[in-house]
Every structure is written in structure tokens, then in C-alpha cells.
Amino acid sequence: MKKKKEKRKKRNVQHAQGATRRVSRTVQPLVLMIVWGLCLGKQVQAEHVVIGHVEIHGARAVSEEVLRKKLVMSTGGVFDSVLVRADIQRILMVYKDHGFWQATVGLPKVHVQDSRAQVIFDVREGVLTRVDSVGIQGDLAFDRADVQKALGLFSGVVLIEEYLDHRLQGLLQFYDNSGYPFCQLRPDVQFAQSHATVHVQVNAGPLVHVDTVYFEGNRISKPHVLLRQMAMKPGMVYRQHEVDQAVNRLRRLSFVQGVDRPELIKKKDGYVLLVRIQEARSARIDGGVGLSPGANGSGQKLTGVFLLDVQNVAGTGREGHVGWLRSGPGASDLVLRYREPWVLGGPVSGRAQLRFRERQGYSEREIGIGAEVVVGNGTTVFVDGVRSAVLPDSTGFGRFLTHDVWTFKVGGQLDRRDQVWNPHTGWMGQAQVAISRVTHTTGEEKRQQYAVLGWRFVPFASRSVLALGGQGHWVFQAGGVPEEARLRIGGSQSIRGYREEAFLATRAMWATAEWRLLLGGRSRVFVFVDAGLIDEKTRVFPVGYGLGLLMESAIGAIGMDLGLARGDSFDQARVHVRLVQAF
Known about the structure:
Blueprint: H1 16-21, H2 30-45, E1 50-57, H3 64-70, H4 81-97, E2 104-105, E3 109-113, E4 116-124, E5 130-139, H5 144-151, H6 161-176, E6 184-192, E7 195-203, E8 209-216, H7 223-230, E9 236-237, H8 240-251, E10 256-259, E11 263-267, E12 270-279, E13 283-293, E14 300-313, E15 318-328, E16 331-340, E17 348-359, E18 362-376, E19 379-392, E20 403-415, E21 426-440, E22 443-460, E23 464-477, E24 487-489, E25 503-505, E26 507-520, E27 523-535, E28 539-540, E29 543-553, E30 556-565, E31 574-582
Parallel strand pairs: 1-4, 5-7, 8-12
Antiparallel strand pairs: 2-4, 3-4, 6-7, 8-9, 10-12, 11-12, 13-14, 13-31, 14-15, 15-16, 16-17, 17-18, 18-19, 19-20, 20-21, 21-22, 22-23, 23-26, 24-25, 26-27, 27-28, 27-29, 29-30, 30-31
């Protein structure tokens, strides 16, 4: 059987201005206006007349300067009676926007001398028009007092068109969020002297239950995985704010690139919510090499990175990560991570991590398990338990002690970005506290670590975004923080323009300002400035700056970053080129 679709109707709210135009009085008889225009046209037809000056008399509640900015006619322009009539209507619209619906504008006085016209408008403002009464009729579906409260329009308020539109949209939102997405409003305004009566005819429409959620565009992701992320159950009452929150939860998935506005469709046996998504590629390989100047700018040192991310294993939402990083001679990291979403059928995800780290003088191995819980829209709380061991090598005996560390971490994240990969607007913040017990041959000590992070994305121009970020990290330990536990600052993940782990510190804070030109998808060009305060043996104030490019291509994403530290010359710039192969 051929399926028929009935797309969600556009709710037609009759504009308040349109309703009032039918009952508003004409400023001057139309015939008089035509005669005036013809006579004035004959006067200026024989010569080229330009506007010398425009005056507006009688303007008190609204300044003459505000009114003049709304006019099309201006000094030096060609005089035209058609523009005069249009400007009369513009003046009246300004007064309506200020609540003076009974204002009138007479035919302007025009004095022509030496081919220059002086135009004088005479305004009679009248008094403010106030709402005398508000009537609500029709199929309300709710108690009249509740509908009146949702409208929020009461007797005595000044009638302003923008405010009236705002209150009508608020009433529509009330019905949208109460299960009536097809509600229609028909307002009507009647004037009597300095008062107005507002009537609103309501047709609530049917109470809508979402019987089924269909997805389009999910080539890999299983429908039940997307549905559980939306936290919507079949048969639930349609509420617009809940649908919006569900869509935002989908957009924050790492394997979802975009989500269109859902479409509510009437089927024979109920209503269907159709959600169209664009999936990101579920796996990527990120590899690259870099050149970093040696100490005091002498020589070049090779760095490298290899990352394998699988973000949506078999369409189930499971995630895996393998990463290898060489940041310099004697410094390398190997990380393995896994995340299992929705453990035991609830909004709890389990995660595990295995890390191996080598530095000059010692090596460290670490294993950790944890869980994260989604407690609200974009709000996540996580806990982790980590055990690590530090082992000095032949060059590190005497500098480093063999010791074990047990760490308990707790933190949270608030995410209000519109999307994960290339945000246009929104903000996000994280905070974490870690308490550790350090055991070595000479005794036992306690260590505390704190971290905060925040980003704000401000759109401007057409495709530009200003990304503002800040981070703070602190570590404390009785008897002093050993070298292997200090914060490692500098490089691509902190203050760019400096070599990786250029600073070892116990306290560090830095801010980032980044201008991004979005090229579509996940591609962008950007320039950045990073500035920080680092408490090492003495306080230092590093500043880095540079530019970068991330471009999607047929073979994957190609990225390049170039950064310089304050005081560096261009030949000391740090360049990183990488290829991200997604499949």
C-alpha cells in the first residue's frame, strides 16, 4: 500500500499588525493624497529638485533623530512624492512600536527654492494605547486561567506590536511543550479611543503521542542505539523542549556529524517522529611527524604521533582508542582506552585505560577503570580508580624512587556546544579532583591534583567563530612534588609554540583565543594566541601564537599547525603535519 505522508502543518499565527490594519483609521483620505501628489508633481516636474532639509514637528515621545533615521528621504536625495507617502507610513510604524497607535501624520509642507526642497512633517502623537481587556476563546484544551497565564497579556499594559508577538509565541510554546504541536492562534485587535481589546481564538488541535521514532541516514548506527541516546520512549506525549533536548544529545555523539530538525508525520495509526542524521566515519587513523628545534635553537628533533580511534564499533556506540606519541628524545607514550556505553541498560558507561610512559630516567605504567553517568542534558559525572607504578632506569637511580600510586578521581562536565567537532556556538566546562596515596621505600605520602577547563564559542560574521578557552592545573604533595608527578606544560595540547613538555610545574594556568574560519564539515582555518602563568622554580609567563589548517579530503583530513613562542624567530617555528584517515 502506498504510504501517504502528511507533513507537520505550519502554524499560521495571524500577525497582530495585520489584524489591526483592518480596523485602524486612514491617516488622510486617499483621494486627497492622490490630488496632493499630482499637484506637487507638477510643481517639481519642470525642474530637478533635491531634498535640502527634512524636519519633523511635534515629536516628543519619540525623538526627531530616531524618526529621521527611519526615513528613506535624506539630504541631497531626489525629491519624490512616492517616497513622501512611504515615509509617512514609516513614521507611523515607529510610533506603533512605541505604543502610540492613534498617532497621525499630516501631509508634509514642502517649500522649494533654488531647486532644493524643505520638507516638514507634522506629527500628532496622541496618547499611549493600552490594553483594555483580553479575551480567549476556542478549543483551549486547558483551563482558561492557565491559558491566560501562559499568554501573559493583561489589562493596562501598553500595546506594543513586538511585545504582543512575543506573548503569542509564548502561548504557542506553552502548547508545544504540552503535547499540542499543531495549535493555531488567530489574534484580533479592536481599537476604541485610547484603548484596545485583544481577542485570541485558539484551536489547540489534537493531543499528540509519538508512537515511533524513525531514523534516516544511519548507515552504521543501530536505531536502538540512537533512540536510547535521545532518551525518548514510544508512546510519550510530544513536548517540544524534550524533543530539542533529545536532538542536542544526538549532536553530541562523536560519531554523528549532523542532525536535521525532526519532522512530525501523521500516519494512519498515529504519529511518527522522523529524524535525519549525517554520520561521521566511525574510525580514523591519525598519524604525523613534526620538527622541533633543539635546545637553544640548535639542531632539529623529530617527533611523531599515531592514533587509531574507533568511535562506533559495529554501530553499537562502543569506543576504542590506541595512541602512540613521541614528543622528543627519551620521551614516548603508549595509551590504550576502551569505553562501553549504557552498561546494564542505563545511562552509565564503563571505561578502562592502560598507559605506558617513558621519560629520561624512569618509566611509568598505569591501569585504570571508571564509570561516567549522564545526569542531565549535557551533564556528565565520572569517577575513576587508577593504579600506577614508577620504575627508575639505569640513568635515573638516585633521582627517582621506585613507588606505587593509588589514585581516586572524580569530576564532571557541562557541555552546551551545538556540536562536538566544529562548534559554532555554546560553551563547555570540566572540573576534576584527584586524591592519591604514594607508597615508596621511605614511607607513604598524600598527593592532591585539581584541574578546571572551560571553552566559550562566539559566532560572528558569516562563518567565523571566536573560541575562548582557559585551563588551570594544580598539584600538591607533602614534602614537595617529585619530578615525575609535576605538570608537563607546552606543546600542541597546552601552550602552542613551545616544545612538548617545555615546563615542569606544580601550578599552571593559561588562556587561549582562537579565531576560526569554518570551511564546512570539519574543515577550518584558524589563528591562535596562548598565554599562561606557570609556577616552576620561578614564575614564567609563556606566550605562543601561530596558525593552522584542518582540511577534509578524499583520503582523509590533512592538518598543519605552525606555532612560535614569544621571542622566537620564524626559523624556530614548530611545524606539525598530520594525516587523519577516516573510514
